Amino acid sequence: MLRWTIGDVRITSVPESESLTSPRFLFPDVDKKKLIQIADRHPWLYDHFVTDKGMMRQKIHALVVDTGKERIVVDTCIGNDKKRHNKGWNNLQTDFLSKMNAAGYPPESITHVICTHLHVDHVGWNTRLVGGKWVPTFPNAKYLFAKPEFEHWSQTAYADGDDIFSDSVKPIYDAGLAQLVPLDCKVGECVQLEPTTGHTPGHVSVRIRSRGKTAVITGDMTHTPVQIAEPGYSSGFDSDPEKARQTRHEAFARWSDGATLVIGTHFATPTAGRLVKVGDAYVLDTKIDENAKL
Ligand SMILES: [Zn+2]
């Protein structure tokens, strides 16, 4: 299990799945041949994130941010028992909750849930199926949803017809556990949302600061380090591709200060590193991550 220490804060990755993904799934205009051409321009991508056959190594995981006072789950993966059009995500039966327990975080101990946005692979474990009903998985947690994100998806059907809002968001609201918050909401002393819209209308990243150390959890404003190498590539899932592109340029400029540990929401292991600007592009340097503890 991957774990990082930022001052007094411990961040633990709880994986749901790790897989090889076709580049066309994320980027309709990029086939395997084109991905190899991109990676040949940025050979560091071959270390962990792109195979020599032109596939992307991706991960779906939750990050538990433990400040000592708060235990915050950031993004809740796909979840079990959910009916989904994507065959690889339909009716999953994983041992995700056992992994949370094994990491020292039983669901009752979680104080907050943050969803960077309300897409299928970020809200799934918000709820679980008990006696035919969707109930909150984390019964003692406040679930923080950015207000514009919640309002958008409460009025907008998902592209593939999955009823994600009804099975994974609305039951939280109905149980009185939802808090609709601004895009820069603070959570305790060490955690603050950082607006990174474009992928969705109310998308946020999550900033962690403690004792002069800092980290950021990307969410899907960047799906893969391929977009760190070439920030111009917007994903086919971005609701506003031009805004998403602008957001990446601005965020990478902020995060490449040499001090910020960038933790990817879908980056394959080792998942985190520091951004280094090289010319017009960036490198995710996973070797200088002195905080990483495997
Ligand atoms: Zn995602």
UniProtKB/TrEMBL annotation:
Molecular function (Gene Ontology), one example: metal ion binding
UniProtKB keywords: Hydrolase, Metal-binding, Zinc
Boundaries of every Metallo-beta-lactamase domain copy: 59-266
Stored CDD domains: metallo-hydrolase-like_MBL-fold
Signal peptide annotation: none
A Pfam family the protein falls into: Lactamase_B
The organism's place on the tree of life at top rank: Eukaryota
Family: Belongs to the metallo-beta-lactamase superfamily.
Protein name as it appears in the record: Zn-dependent hydrolase
Organism: Gonapodya prolifera (strain JEL478) (Monoblepharis prolifera)
